[in-house]
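Hi, here's the filled form for the chain we discussed.

Project: internal
Contact: R.S.
Residues: 149
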Amino acid sequence: MGKGKSGWEEFSTGFVIAAVFGILWLRGGSWIWIFPAAFAGVMPMMHGLQKVLVERSNRRGLVESRRRRPEESEREVLRLARSHGGVLTPSLVALESDLSIAEAEKILEGLAARGHSSVEVRANGRIEYEFAEFKPRLESPYDSPGEQQ
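And the returned structure, exactly as it came back:
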């Protein structure tokens, strides 16, 4: 059972060894070939199959862990908007989160479509999403509750 071998390599190596000893047993008729076939062939073959199943399970778990609920992604984008003064771009979201640029664009477009942000195209062509509630406000004397107009 070699280190560094993939599960399929171990499985196929064990299968070949078991087949060779199996052929020797069939041709010679001696039961002595069954023991090497089992220990040198079948056991590595079973270990390889176990590795294949574990690798597949780990891969499936990794894919499922990368999937996240849309609400979690939106919440992450909103936190970024708050920390960046209410202005985001898809590339900034992708850089500071584990979202891809395409995922970031989709979430930002969805938030804009539902009225949570506005889309601004700058003179240089850069598309920015502005979240008004996170933009810094200038204090005005008219905003204070003690004064009336």
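Let me know if anything looks off before we file it.
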